[in-house]
What we know:
Layout: H1 12-22, E1 27-29, E2 36-38, E3 42-44, E4 52-56, H2 57-70, H3 72-85, H4 87-100, H5 102-115, H6 117-130, H7 132-146, H8 158-167, E5 183-186, E6 201-204, H9 206-212
Antiparallel strand pairs: 1-2, 3-4, 5-6
Helix pairs in contact: 4-5, 7-8
Amino acid sequence: MNTPQAPHHHNRKARLLMAKLDTTTNLKTCYRCKQSLDISYFHSDVSRVDGLNPKCKLCTLETSKDYYMRHAAQVVKRSIEWARKNKAKKNASTRRWRAANPEAARQAVARWVQENPEKDKASRRNWLRNHPEWVAARQAIARARRKGAQQTEHPLTATEWLYIKAAYDHRCVYCDRKLQRLTQDHIIPVSKGGKHTIENVVPACASCNSRKGVKEPLVPVQPMLALHFA
């Protein structure tokens, strides 16, 4: 008959139980600085018998900084390799950090832009080249404002324009032709007080848009619902 074995330190439940028993005094001596400190000054570490890191938080930080200073090149290389292999995790981690530290994130971006002006310009050009729909939407907003469109809290966005075209099956609302390139026609012309919003914009071919001009719609048009996209 097999004799039951006592739980050992590699058993997580046993470690946590021992941690609870060993920390009843709420004090622990740091392995590095030898100070007896409250257990709140130590990071948790379930691989240890008492469930705590042997070094206090300050000593852990100092040794980490010292290691980085002595092995900066290797640390940076490993970080880059890890980020390249774990893009989803890296992006998620970055998003969480930016959400938790908005001001620090803005300052970090500002510093990077100041230190890398040429890279920043190249990055912006590349982003604009890969997002023509955003560029077209901004240009449309600018044209509408020049024509006197009323200011609105929710001007038509690139995402909304894509939604409108998909909703109309990429067809001109007037001649029903299916086209790759469609123009934005304002049901109520901006020169007559119309707004540049999802409720007032429909897809039209260049010919029909030009023929309509500032007149009433060529055929009855059902405007989109007031849905707004980020």
